[in-house]
């Protein structure tokens, strides 16, 4: 039960809804029990009238009619009150549970946003989605219905039993005898129902995953001509789901008859034993009717015990899973007194920075040192896996160096406010990702107030405007799942416009033009240099077409800095750089 204690602060937040909800539960339970007494009295009145029919006079039957009208009115009135309070009970407790569900979802979502990339690598998207949807719904079942039924059961049962025992102890004990069996059976059946619906659900998500992969991988699927096989797999999966559903419905079908059987047994006992009491003259005839009413009154609360127990167990497991995520501490956080400067110059210094990936133990960067003065353009080259992207990630504080430090404007980036730092760096990652939105929205993503003119100007600048204007809806063309598919190079250029539009003091381009032809790459980068003066740029690349734009070039090999300097100097040295350059430009004559 420990995990569910996490919810107490939420209950506290909605204490007024909770308290008034509890009050309404009590009132609605009470008003459902009270009519019993009037049912007995009405029956007794009739019985007396029948037995005295021999010497009945007009006055007596008139009194009977008045009495019956009175009791009917009372019973009706109490039922109406019960109805009103049941309505109010749902309006408070279920509304409270919806509020808490909403808060919980927001809490989980905003916690997700704080977590580092490592967390996202360790957990699948499906898991993340499940926590925030399914697990929260199950937890809500505890907050709302389970709580409501528990209070209702406890109070209604207590009150009914008090009423029953005050009328007749023997009759009460006899009538209640089948109830424990009812509770036990329902608990067993609802546990079975839960287990089987769990199986149904996981099969359901297996089917969804299969379908989703089919749709997103449809090109590969068709290219390999595997449609028939995939259909076969789907049918198999669906068949399994069908059988599991069948099993679930079998137990479900058992539930109602079982309950009715036991209610029937209790009613039978009430009539039998009650009837004997009447014959013996111990009980009045109305008591039998009263007890039949009690039996019916007890059925639902007692049936709900088993149901509530399994609901609470499920909520507990879900809350535990939610807590496991909520308790993950983000690896990268702003310090308490974070550095949030008004103006940022963009001086970047790497001081003996090393980084080892914790999951794989790969040493991606070894004691890397470099100084970038404000406004400088620096190129980092190296083969695949030499640690180039790692440098960009470290500067963005996606993770922190294992050793050494990085400063921006003389302040260790771990002392910076993370958001301020990241907003000051325009980043174009290796794999450009665009949101399923219009191209204009995608470009304006990092800014709040970009006009259409600005958007177009930056698109122009990234040499993508012409392509975009060729689309049916121009800048309003929606990209992604339900829109047009951009080519790799177009995506990269949109992504560059998106990074530049916020005019950041620092820029990281990580292989950001790998899918763009060399001429366009060079003209984009030369434009960049002239237009955005004062911006410190870190260009990560495998292709050496832009190296003459660089103030300095750093050459990495297996995480280590092996060469640094200007293009012409590096070319003269016998090293990796000259090797790479000659490989890409075989006609070069080295002076
Ligand atoms: P580059 O950008 O030069 O191709 P990276 O910086 O991406 O190189 O990678 C450097 C090394 O770190 C490679 O050996 C790569 O396999 C490893 N690496 C990169 N990302 C991760 C990661 N998330 N987990 C574990 N190892 C990684
Ligand atoms: Mg890379």
Which strand order spans the largest sheet, edge to edge or round the barrel? 6-7-8-3-9-10
Shape: elongated
Q: Strand fraction band?
A: 5-15%
How many runs of DSSP E, i.e. beta strands?
A: 10
Terminus-to-terminus distance: 78 Å
Average pLDDT reading: 89
Task: Assign a percent range to the helix content.
Answer: 55-70%
What does the main sheet amount to? 6 strands, mixed
Which ligands accompany this protein?
Answer: adenosine-5'-diphosphate, magnesium ion
Radius of gyration: 37 Å
Low-confidence spans: pLDDT under 50, at least 5 residues?
none
Helix run count? 20
| Category by helix and strand content | alpha/beta
Which H/E pattern describes the elements?
HHHHHHHHHHHEEEHEEHEHHHHEHEEEHH
Q: In brief, what are we looking at here?
A:
With 591 residues, the protein is of the alpha/beta class.
Q: What report would you give on this structure?
A:
It is elongated and about 130 Å long. By secondary structure, it is α/β, with parallel strands linked by helices. 63% of the residues lie in helices and 10% in strands. The protein has helices at 8-13, 15-33, 35-51, 58-114, 117-122, 125-167, 169-176, 179-216, 218-223, 227-280, 286-326, 388-395, 418-423, 439-443, 452-461, 465-469, 488-500, 518-531, 567-572, 576-584; strands at 348-356, 363-372, 377-382, 403-408, 411-412, 425-428, 506-510, 536-541, 552-557, 560-565. The structure holds adenosine-5'-diphosphate and magnesium ion (MG). Magnesium ion binds at residues 388-389, 430, 510-511.
